[in-house]
AGE family epimerase/isomerase
Amino acid sequence: MKNITDYIQQWANTYKDDMQNNIMPFWIKYGLDRVNGGIYTCVDRDGALMDSTKSVWFQGRFAFTCSYAYNHIEKNPAWLQAAKSTLDFIEKYCFDSDGRMYFEVTADGRPLRKRRYIFSESFAAIAMSEYSIASGDKTYAVKALELFKRMQYFLQTPGLLAPKYTDTLPMKGHSITMILINVASRIREAIQDECLTRQIDESISCLEKDFLHPEFKALLETVGPNGEFIDSNMGRTINPGHCIETAWFLLEESKLRGRDQNIKELGLKILDWSWEWGWDKEFGGIINFKDCRNLPSQDYAQDMKFWWPQTEAIIATLYAYLMTKEEKYLKMHQQISEWTYTHFPDKEYGEWYGYLHRDGTVAQPAKGNLFKGPFHIPRMMTKGYMLCEEIMSEIKKEIR
């Protein structure tokens, strides 16, 4: 790459401009519920509301997104107000009497569905901690920490969360292991408690000891209680997007610990292995699922290109370059960025499509549903802008 400075500056400008003039305006205009509070995400290509059901995941995700952008992109009072409105909705309507959170509620907050996972709690916790930083209201950091400790209690107390399978097939999943790293890290930015770094240490150890399988050069999604390989369709599944997301969580933690070498090497190994599994050498982009024995993947969307794995790869490759200065990671960033920005943004109505066929054609044009909304894309743009600024700062120091 001839001029790294120009390349990084161009992407910094793109991320910031997209946040200020495309992504945030779209969701403030079409998603924000000014009657009940909170955010709608089930919107069509042009922003028209298709379903007023509210994803509780996205109440937390949107409040985090608004606060994170406020903290790092622009001190926009509308973003802070939107975060507060959504947090108020969460606290008023999204918790059940047992301390658990719902998965779906109606527009006015009546419960519709509750699942065995604690991802709703995860996103509410990072929203509270980030809003605490944005607003200066420390009570939200305390609430975030309390919610995190409640999550740990649910996870560690047998019988409180229903298992996915019976005792015939004991197992554990990668998703909760990796997300606890990010949740603890985000809360730690707002409030200190020894349980946060301890959880990160435990998750990292579990990833390396149990989920990382060198015989396949892969991080597996599901393993036995002690990391045993489960030779089934599910047990062989690799989710490259999840793995790449894990990689940048690890690289971030390494940086926060003064560039801890062991954590850094683990993050880079996971990124390299997962890129090799995930990058579609024929059509480009990160593919959804692979089988670690190269058998047919059972998931019906196995060869599609979803929006979020691409955004995770953009962040991870920037992080890898920041941490190593190896140009191969900048070239990977260029590959994924050019493919993503060619296929996902909707140049007519704004925002991004979420679901593409393997060849990059649009599978369905809606901008949101219960799983896609204002989180992965704006998080990538905010984090991408921050990483580009860090890289530029280091380049300037080297020139001096």
